[in-house]
Amino acid sequence: MSVRRRVLRLERLRPPPPPPSPQEFRRSKQWQQITQRLTRIVDKALPLLSAEQQEQVVQGLDGIGGDKPGPYSAWLDHLLDGRCRLPELGPEAGKALLLAWLSPEADGGMVCRQCGLEYPRHRHPPMSDWKVLPGKTPLQGSPPWYELPEFFPACPNCGASRYEVDWPHLVQDACCPWMTLDGYIGAAS
């Protein structure tokens, strides 16, 4: 039997997948642009890191797509799902973001309402250990009310208040101004 006949027979048994839809093709191109941007951010940040930190970042990035989720997995999944955006970051902001995601104290992420960047939230101690800030009354006036550890006093990209954020799972069905900017893939259908 000739190779051509075998291929035809296989195609009858298992037809080839359909070509990607225009939306799938667009998402694929946007994802490629986002991964190129991430590569640029990492390349600019690496010289600012110690040799040990560089190794940790590279190992964290090498684990992407593996069987075991790595420190950047949830963030990249949220980028791919359209729950956040990756703006161009300067070297210092890129360094701070990459290191914060590596921290064992990272406890999920928050999405800036201004620019769409998702950055990690610092794990908080048990509520019984929370200390009220001097001159503050909990839940009265504007936050912060408690002295809690944070990675960033404000968004590392645009400087917006760390209280002007959304949880990634709430962003997917929202319509935010940053969703029209580059570095955003759009919601998966």
Detailed description of the structure:
This protein is α+β, with helices and mostly antiparallel strands. The chain has one domain (24-180). 38% of the residues lie in helices and 10% in strands. The chain has 6 helices and 5 strands; from the N terminus they run αααααβββββα. The chain has a 3-stranded antiparallel sheet. It has a two-stranded antiparallel sheet with strand order 3-4. A hairpin with a 5-residue loop joins strand 1 (106-112) and strand 2. Helix 2 crosses helix 5 (91-102).
Helical content class: 25-40%
Q: Main β-sheet: number of strands, strand sense, barrel status?
A: 3 strands, antiparallel
What is the average per-residue confidence, as pLDDT, rounded to a whole number?
A: 89
Judging from the principal axes of the Cα atoms, what is the shape? elongated
